[in-house]
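Give me structure tokens for this 96-residue protein.
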Amino acid sequence: MKFSIIERFRLIGVIEGLSYLTLLFIAMPIKYMMGNPIYVKIVGMAHGILFILFILAQTQASIKHKFKLNDNAIYFIASLIPFGTFFTDRRLKKVV
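Here you go.
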């Protein structure tokens, strides 16, 4: 199955958002409440890789669809906020 650039950006955004929520609400409580840091290491590494993929996908989508600077800023800032990438996904549905 071949995805368009926007569809790939949306998919990576959703997966990255889920990894962020997993890190914040599952892995970190396990680390600090149960003293087991391995989950933060594993989920944190996966999240970091997904975040880099998100930025690369955003760059590709921005170049192809000529996003305004304001839109790029919104997408980037949303990726730093829990649940923000789901806002991004809803907004990107309008671009497709």
